[in-house]
Design brief:
The protein contains six helices and ten strands. The chain is α+β, with helices and mostly antiparallel strands. It has a single domain, classed as Roll (C8orf32 fold). The strands form two sheets. A six-stranded antiparallel β-sheet has the order 8-7-6-3-9-10, with helices on both faces. It has a four-stranded antiparallel β-sheet with strand order 2-1-5-4, with no helix packed on it.
Length: about 250
Amino acid sequence: MSRALMANEPEVEVEIDRLGDVSTLTRPPSSSPVSSIGAATFTHTPCYCEENVYLLCKKLGSIGVAEPTGLDLFVVFISNEGNKIPLWHQKASQIEEGLVVWDYHVICVQVKSKETKESTADLVWDLDSTLPFPLALDQYIHKAIRPLSFKNSMYRRLFRIVHAPTFLQYFASDRSHMKNASGNWISPPPTYNPIIAEDGTTQNLNEYMKMHAPDDCSMKELVDSVYINKYGVVVSEAMLEEFFSQIHV
């Protein structure tokens, strides 16, 4: 998984070291009622965001912050056809406002119940962000994604949204994407064993990373499909907030 930093102009990129130390970075205080949990509660291996989110979903359920089976959680892969997606306020950044260009990134979105939707916000859990943890979805979109910054450009983001119970059942990674042509690790792997799907599959990460233009269907069809499609659904930047506004658990 490679990454680059953007300079002032969108088309200029500066390569950075993937092995940057993030352990000493601080995050702003959060006003979220669950902020006392803290990012340190969760397992985090730099450059393995998909596995970090897999374990985060399980942890949120086990400590009672989310539904035990993850019914209120959605795993969101962020990428595009060119595998170059800018995000702000990232720990790995060494430039102003935390700008990083990832090949892909993965976050968790926790939606609120139908009964509390009007009074509470959907939350984003991003272990690689310097923003408050967790952060309201609309604020994360505004501060970290900034949709209008790259409208109709090669850097516009696409979002593969997968219901967490489905993701926890089917996701698998043998971490082969993190080895170079010589078979050496690009970044040290997690100390625990690779994740194997319940059906015995050992590698399908590429299916989640694969991005394409959203299907030509209604928002209702997309929302319905996220619960039945193994690899979820793909939405555009313009559709992201509306999509989650239609989710009720």
